[in-house]
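pls design
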């Protein structure tokens, strides 16, 4: 995936500043493509030079000036071109699976600790997906007026729920297989209960 095209997609909804763009990015695309604020600013500068964006400086009384980016006709054409092109080869990198692959060469307790940490990470994501993101989707639709895009945003949310539920269950299975003794603590039980509840909802609706 191309960061410039992700940014073009967001700016296509409405003109925005780099700071506001990062906030929107963190609540949406961040879940499947990460980018730091410096990366976003550098990319915006490159996109402006290519003619994909127009920069307007808005002066404010008693406040720093705002640099607002608006997508151009060339930018929309580039976004549509990228959306239509074939996906190509998918790049897959997962450090956790490398650790599991060589798990027999480390202390079982260390492998178990990695798995519990990974499981908790996905349990936390599931909770965010269920409690936080639906309202974010609705608020962004209200802000931009892109109500017809909501079902497509929800498709990606559903994907995230299903993947995290799968990873959570997989971690539990591997922990049982390696006989993890630390898998019975109250913190883990709470995470399991929460994740099961969220997982059931994820399978039932978007």
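designed seq:
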């Amino acid at each position: 995936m191309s960061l410039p095209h992700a940014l073009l997609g967001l700016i296509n909804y409405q003109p925005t500043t780099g700071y506001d763009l990062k906030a929107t990015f963190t609540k949406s695309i961040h879940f499947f493509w990460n980018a730091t604020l410096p990366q976003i600013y550098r990319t915006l500068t490159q996109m402006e030079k290519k003619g994909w964006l127009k920069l307007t400086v808005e002066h404010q009384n008693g406040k720093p000036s705002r640099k607002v980016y608006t997508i151009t006709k060339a930018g929309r054409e580039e976004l549509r071109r990228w959306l239509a092109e074939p996906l190509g080869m998918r790049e897959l990198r997962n450090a956790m699976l490398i650790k599991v692959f060589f798990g027999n060469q480390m202390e079982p307790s260390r492998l178990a600790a990695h798995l519990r940490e990974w499981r908790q990470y996905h349990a936390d994501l599931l909770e965010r997906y269920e409690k936080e993101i639906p309202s974010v989707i609705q608020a962004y639709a209200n802000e931009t007026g892109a109500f017809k895009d909501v079902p497509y945003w929800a498709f990606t949310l559903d994907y995230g729920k299903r993947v995290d539920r799968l990873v959570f269950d997989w971690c539990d299975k591997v922990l049982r297989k390696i006989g993890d003794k630390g898998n019975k603590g109250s913190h883990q039980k709470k995470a399991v209960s929460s994740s099961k509840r969220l997982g059931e909802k994820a399978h039932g609706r978007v």
